[in-house]
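Researcher: Predict the fold of Serine/threonine-protein kinase RIO2.
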Amino acid sequence: MKLDATDLRYVTSDEFRVLTAVEMGSKNHEVVPLSLIVQISGLRNGGINKLVGSLAKRNLISRVQNAKYDGYRLTYGGYDYLAMRALSKRDSMHSVGNQIGVGKESDIYIVADAEGNEMVLKLHRLGRVSFRAIKSKRDYLGKRKSASWLYMSRLSAQKEWAFMKILSEHGFPVPKPIDQARHCILMSFIDAYPLRQVSEVENPGKLYSQLMDVIVRFAQAGLIHGDYNEFNILIKREDGEPIVIDFPQMVSTSHENAEWYFNRDVECIRTFFKRRFRYESSLYPRFRKVIEESGETGFKLDVAVEASGFGRKEMKVLEEVSFFYLILWPSLKLIFAVHGSCKGYRRT
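Model: Structure tokens for Serine/threonine-protein kinase RIO2 follow.
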């Protein structure tokens, strides 16, 4: 789903009331009945059909075919508009520019405030086509078979916001968080490029040490990135310093699989430097040693994040999805690439 903010200024206040009503109705209904939309929006039944038709034509809501009743779902387009309207009303964001990145679970855009200062808008989009196809065949979400991807995306954004905010406040090399609404995060723009685009560096040993030091600093603060690789590390053009991004999968060092996540982060960096720069070092952090040296006393950021409002319940819900994205899905993609389509799965 590509963000299109062209029509945002033309959406009326009544149409936004309908969008909000569909969103609120989605908390208890997979398909929101028209009667409930009328009730929540407080609009007259006679005019609601025109508003719903206008929103459906813009692909901000979608009518569900073959439903037992006349019902609608909020689309990512509608969710985008609700989030951007919230950011605009708070004077956090004024205009939307070009898309600068796309990932397996997010889209990245350049935006600006009223003074023209550039920022980055990240829209979380869990439930891409490939994941939905798999979910229809296998229940990787356990009991959460009817999980709303909009809700999961919102949780993902809230988690990333909580971690980015606490990391920024404590001097970690991360973008500065500016605002958050629904599934969107607004953050500072950094003139940098992904590590995956770097073909050579003047001193690979120095950069290697810097990246390993960040892993250690995270762990000493009670955190593990969980997806620490060349795709989620930026190199600043100005001074070559690394910036770490993408935190929805971050876990606490007290997590039951913490050592596995830690070792994987370390191995991702070692493998990349060996492959790209032909640099290999026998020095790399060990989880147990780092934890022992950090001690059990002192301020732990994982505790602070939970205290900020994003607690264990929300973490557990997201982990069900993150496990698929980070572990099962890469393995399935490899299988599909080798064996081609099988049992109805599409090669991606």
